[in-house]
Amino acid sequence: MIPVTFSQLSGFEYLWLLLFCVAAISPYIAARVNRTPVSLATVISLMLVAVLQFLHALIGSVIGSDFDPVYFGALIPAWVLDPSHIHRLLFAGWLHGGAMHVLGNILVVALIGIPLEGRLGARRWMTLYILGILGGNIAWWLTHPDSTTPALGASGACFGLLGGYMVCWPNDKVVFPLIFLIRAWPIGLIALFRLGFEIYYVYSIDAGRMGGGNVAHLAHIGGFFLCFAVARFVARGAPSSLDDDSGDPYAMGVGNLGTVPSISEESGHPWIGAEFPLDDGSERVMKCLFAEGDEPETRLAWLEELAEQSACPVCGSRIDVKTDGHARLFCTSRSSHLDWPTD
């Protein structure tokens, strides 16, 4: 019997599942440790899972494994309402049906994802990516509620990145292969071009002008429009201000740092004597910032670390990093509470 829920997995099949989880998650851990882009971590994650799918197909039958990653993790709309299958809404975004399928999605994640992460920052980028997966899968489930055909792939997330980028920074130019030319195109043009084709395919299939094929076009549209609807909310407090196309998104925030304000231990910091002081871990990060914060890239990295580990000294709200003019911390609840360091 092919296991389709966690309760049906044997110990050996749990080992296979663990290998897939390690392949998917380890690039993100490495990106966090090495402070590298999460968009590139996603490219590596998708590639590793695809390689493991190939290896499983190659040796699974030889070693007698009944575990099938597609039937265990792909979206099967007819089963979604069963709580034991809820994992499919997310797992399906890391599985693909072949080399061309995964390579096509990796291309979009790399070409669109890297400059978008430069605008959004890593955490907001990953939020938008996950929403694209969920939006695509939910759209496919709602439009094919009785289907038992597995649906899989990161295409919903890819279209989600396009929709989110278009609504937040429509004038950015991104290098992309479009109309047989590889050059920098406005992201709005790229997004509308790709969305237009998807809508045309859906219309043609519905009108009987072409066969249904095996491409979930409605999932692509669902991922696009969910991210289009929520991206400006997700992007609040992002390193780049909404609609501001100044600076270079490919610089991943570093190109927009501007001048380096003075940061020294003697000058102190806003958490000294505050209602919400730094804990021991945040104090260690602050010492690293004082010691190593002269270079823009290093200063940005330690400020991002401090933002993740500490809160606003005045109200205890979440804080984040802005990079317009120079990198600094600000309170996401009320900007007057924290704007540090200053020029």
Describe this structure in words.
The protein has 2 domains: 6-234, Rhomboid-like fold (Up-down Bundle), CATH 1.20.1540; 257-340, no CATH class. It starts with 10 loop residues before the first helix and ends with a strand. It has 11 helices and 5 strands. It has a 3-stranded antiparallel β-sheet with strand order 3-4-5, with helices on one face. It is mostly helical and 343 residues long. α1 (11-34) packs antiparallel against α2 (38-59), α6 packs antiparallel against α9 (217-234) and α10 (280-292) packs antiparallel against α11. The model has no long low-confidence stretch (mean pLDDT 88). It has helices spanning 11-34, 38-59, 69-73, 88-91, 99-120, 122-143, 155-168, 187-206, 217-234, 280-292, 296-309; strands spanning 173-178, 181-186, 319-322, 328-331, 339-340. It is globular.
For this entry, give a set of tags:
343 residues; mainly alpha; Rhomboid-like fold; three-stranded antiparallel sheet; two-stranded antiparallel ribbon; 5 strands; globular
How many distinct helices?
Answer: 11
CATH second-level architecture of the largest domain = Up-down Bundle
- Percentage of helical residues? 40-55%
What is the tally of beta strands?
Answer: 5
- This entry's quaternary arrangement is single chain
Task: Identify the CATH homologous superfamily of the largest domain.
Answer: Rhomboid-like
Outline the low-pLDDT stretches: none
CATH topology of the largest domain, by name, is Rhomboid-like fold
The helix/strand series, from N terminus to C terminus, equals HHHHHHHEEHHHHEEE
CATH class descriptor of the largest domain? Mainly Alpha
Largest sheet: 3 strands, antiparallel
Structural class: mainly alpha
Morphology call:
globular
Over the alpha carbons, how many angstroms does the gyration radius reach?
A: 22 Å
